[in-house]
Amino acid sequence: MKPICTFRVYPKMRGLYYEVYVWKNSKGLRKHVTWCKPGRDCKGLCSTFTCWSVKKGLSRKCGEIHFIDKNLGIECVTHELEHAVLGWARRNKIKLNEESSSGMMKADCPEERLCYAMGRMAAQVTNKFFKYGVWK
Questions:
Q1: How far is 51 from 27, CA to CA, in rounded Å?
Q2: Cβ contact 76:44 at 8 Å
Q3: Which is nearest to 44 in space by CA: 13, 20, 68, 70?
Q4: 85-103 pLDDT, tens per residue?
Q5: pLDDT averaged over the chain?
Q6: What pLDDT is recorded for position 99?
Q7: What is the longest distance spanned by two Cα atoms in the chain?
Q8: Could you tell me which residues come within 8 angstroms of residue 118 by beta carbon, excluding any fewer than 6 positions away?
Q9: How far apart are the two ends of the chain, measured CA to CA in Å?
């Protein structure tokens, strides 16, 4: 079973990325996702991983985000994107701390870096959903 569409999203517009899949139903998602056991009621899934190749070294692919066509509400989309942002932050060793969550924040503080990554990924997903006719 093939996905309705696939595309990449980049937390920083280049470099590390997540591969996004939109499936017609949970059956397609469950057939593709072999590293865990999503249930029949699964609405979305984000898996963050690190791939290493002897020839190429560390892969730029951070993971995969899977959506099911009938469950593409903003809550599900942002929920899975947040998992991706947190996975990207772990891969980049970005740590939230008390300093970044109070007062006026610097543009490069950890909290702002995560917020910018989330905004960029949400914009890319939204644009692709419209491009592929998933959202109309």
A1: 26
A2: yes
A3: 68
A4: 999 999 999 887 755 556 6
A5: 89
A6: 59
A7: 50
A8: 78, 81, 82, 85
A9: 23
Contacts 24+ apart (CB under 8 A), 82-87: 82/118, 83/46, 83/48, 84/9, 84/11, 84/18, 84/46, 84/48, 84/121, 85/11, 85/114, 85/117, 85/118, 85/121, 86/48, 86/114, 87/46, 87/48, 87/62, 87/63
Burial 41-51 (b: 16+ CB within 10 A, else e): ebbbbbbbeee
Q: How far is CA 40 from CA 9, 21, 26, 43, 100, in A?
A: 26, 17, 6, 9, 39
Distance of CA 113 to the CA centre of its chain: 15
In the structure encoding, which two tokens stand for residue 65, read together?
């985000």
Beta bridge partners of 57: 53
Q: What is the mean pLDDT of residues 68-86?
A: 94
* Measured distance CA(18)–CA(64) in Å, rounded: 5
The CA angle 2-123-8, to the nearest 5 degrees, is 35
DSSP string for 113-129: HHHHHHHHHHHHHHHHH
